[in-house]
Specification:
single chain, 2 domains, D-Maltodextrin-Binding Protein, domain 2, 5-stranded mixed β-sheet, alpha/beta, about 325 residues
Length: about 325
Amino acid sequence: MPRPSRMFPCLRSCLAALALLLLAGASQAAGRQPLTLAVSRGGVSLLVYVAEARRYFADEGADVRTVNCASGRACLGLVSDGLADVATAAELAVVMSAAGARGDLAILGSISTSAHQIKLVARRSAGITQPADLADKRVGTVGGTSAQYFLAAWLQHHGVGPVRMQSMAPEQLAGALQSGAVDAIVIWEPLAAQAQRELRDDAIELPNPSIYTQHFVLAGTQRVLREKEESLLRLLRALLRAQQYIADEPARATQILATRLGMLPADAARFLGEHDYRLRLDATLLPTMTAQARWAVREGLAPAEAGSGGLARLVEPRLLQRVSPAAVAPR
């Protein structure tokens, strides 16, 4: 029979080893906490589509379930309702949500930036061939979104008088334009391309002078950032791999986009040419959000305090800095 002096050191060693195994297992389980990602349908979400198609989420050990939404605002609604952990959305949707009941949102990074994501499509048969022709015309858009913000900036840039804006759901706009219920629409891609295809020769896309660069972001709640930090880091690493794949294999990335959205390859290729698919937090994000908050207050879409500052709290660079320090611009 072994002496007690020999048994207890062995027992202590075994218990210590067991404790380490349990801690490692707990750590791994924490890193594998499932994430529900609400994804706005469109070319802006290509990083997510590539990460799914290439199995980068699984490779990085991220347990990600995606849910499709018609708009970023709808995606953030799922986060607000506790049905999703993180969402892809335009930065204005985050500003508007934070101005309302959800003040605890945080932006982890932009997954796409583009000055051409939103377009103004009109009917030639409505007598529209140039910006000035839009005055007093019926213009459909999605109220309270980046599309309405673009319309306001576009009208101001061109010095065009008031228009009769009609707010609709995103999926209603192409049909309203084709039926003649409105004379023009302002909407994001791929709905803008859909409207042009349906109108054929009667469609005209009015010039976009790069007046607004949209930041399409990944956002979640502060609670999710605290409780699922390791899972979010794995998610970000997968998106960085998708970013590199798009840069290295643009033709294959184009095919992934065309397949996912049921687009023509030519339209998908145009998307890639119009978007910057780098996961980052750049210096233009916060000034853009500040201008949008002031606009929302002027339009009566947000309370006065929304334009008084404090938007920096909505940008959380900590996680992106851990996986890609160069992707975060100095504040």
